[in-house]
Structures are given as structure tokens and as C-alpha cells.
Design brief:
The protein is mainly β and 182 residues long. The chain is built from no helices and 16 strands. 0% of the residues lie in helices and 48% in strands. The chain is elongated and about 65 Å long. Bound molecules: zinc ion.
Amino acid sequence: MNDNQKIPGEKIAQVEEYLPGNNTFEDDYAIRATTIGDINLDSKERLASINSKTQITVPKVGDVIIGVVEANLPSMIAIMIKYVNGKKVVADLECVCVTRHIRKKNIALAKDVVKAKIISHINGTIHASVDSQELGVLFTKCRKCFGTVVKMRDAVKCKDCTWIDDRKLSSDFGKSEFLEQN
Ligand SMILES: [Zn+2]
């Protein structure tokens, strides 16, 4: 990869100097790449763009994503994005979701499938939220025995060992249409 090649999320210019062009997005002070490609700084038009043949796009604020939980930390979860607005994505893009305000012990476990909404881009990090009824866990397993769970009000119960556990469940929990969209 040469110096002109940029990867998604990478800073390509300052907003005071350039306007965001093709395959870029603006976050606070920087213009960043949304795809892998060569940087193109047009000083006449003051336009910073990325020339790319690939179709990798970073989800925009307001987009709904479905992904797999990569890490479950005390105050946030990290999600590997698999679908954006129902469309399967090929790029490995991660977003983080702050969960410290949600009064549940287990918001989501690693490997759970969750639905989240993109709320911001800060310093190249994509931030998402699960703070609404349709957002949250779509698929999970028992924390004790990895058995199949069923929904019980706002918790889940294991069919095998009867362990009851909490999650931030999506109102779409148990529906599996999203798996057929690929
Ligand atoms: Zn179990």
C-alpha cells in the first residue's frame, strides 16, 4: 500500500482546507475516507476525494446496522457490522455502542447478533446506539451452557438448563429474516 492509498476512516484532509468529495465523510475537524482508494486533493475546487473502484461504504448517521458483538466491556460493546440498512457489507467495519446508562447486567454477550442505529462519527470511530425498542439483541445463547434461549418478558430463559438472564432485547428478537438477506 503506497502513501496515497487510504483506508476507510483514515483522515485525508482538514475541513478548513478542503470540502468532502467522493467517497469521503466529514467528522468534526477532518475529512475521512469511506473506501479504500487513492487520495485526490483538488486545490482549485478545494475538494478532497478518494478514487475508488470498490463499493465499501461507511454507514451514515441514522443508518440501522446489524452486527455481531466482538467485545462486551463494562460500559460499551464493540460490534462488527454485517448489514447496513438490510444490505450485507463486505468490509470489516466496527462500531462501538455505549451501554453504561442501560440498567441491565448483560446488555449483550460476545457473538450475540444485535441491531443498532448509527449516531455519530467521532475521530474515525463509528458510534451506535441500542436505545430504542426495535434495537438491541436479535440472537443470543445461554451464558451457562450455550443452549437455545427463549424470550421471557425482557429477559431470556435457556431451554436446556433453565438459566434466566437479562439482555437489552430488540422487539425483533427471535425473528430471523435478517439471516436470509445475504
Ligand atoms: Zn443453558
